[in-house]
Amino acid sequence: MISISSLSREETAVVDRIGQTLTDWGYKPCREGNNIWIFSSRWNDDLPTILLNSHVDTVRPAKAWTYDPFGATVVDGKLIGLGSNDAGASVVSLLGAFRHLEEKSQPYNLVFCASAEEEVSGLHGVCSVLKHFGNISLAVVGEPTGMQMAVAEKGLIVLDCEAKGIPGHAARNEGENAIYKAIADIQILTALSFSKKSPELGPVKISVTMIEAGTQHNVIPDSCKFVLDVRTNEQYTNEEVYKIIAESITSEVKPRSFRLNSSGISLEHPFVQRGISFGLSHYGSPTTSDQAVIPYTSVKIGPGESARSHTADEYICLNEIRDGIELYIRLLDQIQL
Q1: Which domains does the chain have, with CATH numbers?
Q2: What is the SS3 assignment for 131?
Q3: C-alpha distances in angstroms, 156 versus 86, 135, 139, 145, 238?
């Protein structure tokens, strides 16, 4: 997988490779676009269903790589390559667990899905094929968490904002400076507090990440555009957070999407309780994943470390993959939902 480029929306070749491997192993893979999945052979419509999901797409390699991003180089037990940590290790670990778990009767059905477009929150990723899986009782989403349990995950809204003024000559006392209006709104947003805090995710977080204004030095700008990165918790819907922000400032506020919602799982859920009994920790994740577009109870857990993702010389330790497979099996074998 590492040796085959699988940038977001360009995953065809790696999915071809996965499909051939699954076929060689005796499975009958289903495919739609660059999403591929298999069902457990002991399927029973009367049982609940568990989805094992991770993504095959990667970001583009940073310029600082010192190894070949597609070289799959092994050094001192580390497999170095683009997508090794995020999230190739989760893909193969979940698949390894799937193969073992379905060898005997389980009190649930299993679906393994390797999906596309996660890194760009695309419309043709796992959200586009969920309709084929029926009602999912639990989704296990593979992302690098050090095999600890992310029991909650922040949602994301990207807001395009624009403060509008009146143009004029900078040398004269005329016009209405849109930059000053934007600064006033940004100060309001900096101080804006959301009263409902999450025990796992904390408060809603607003960050100004881009700003653009002006055409030349002697013209009062009549427009100042800025972008907000808003990380939401489960205490609010994305629409509610947008409304609060839009009503708090004078700038126009336009959401790009409301689809990346906060998600989570009860600490009393059997999966979480089993993980706790094994000594696993649980936490709230500030980063988004395919959990945001899976409208079912879900938990994020996988081999590797989030800090390695999207970095030069990304790597996964081979023992992390082995340990990941074993822990997935221990967490899921004979679990009652």
Answers
A1: 12-153+262-332 (3.40.630.10), 155-255 (3.30.70.360)
A2: helix
A3: 19, 25, 20, 19, 8
Q: Which pTM value belongs to this model?
A: 0.91
Strand partners, 80: 73, 315
CA distance 111 to 154: 25
Q: Can you tell me the distance from the alpha carbon of 212 to that of 223, in angstroms, rounded to the nearest whole number?
A: 9
- Write the pLDDT tens digit of every residue in 259-287: 999 998 999 999 999 999 999 999 999 99
DSSP code for 218: T
Contact 260, 247 (CB under 8 A): no
- Is the CB of residue 161 less than 8 Å from the CB of residue 225? yes
| Amino acid residing at 292 | A
Total Cβ atoms within 10 A of residue 169: 11
Q: Is 301 helix (H, G, I), strand (E, B) or coil?
A: coil
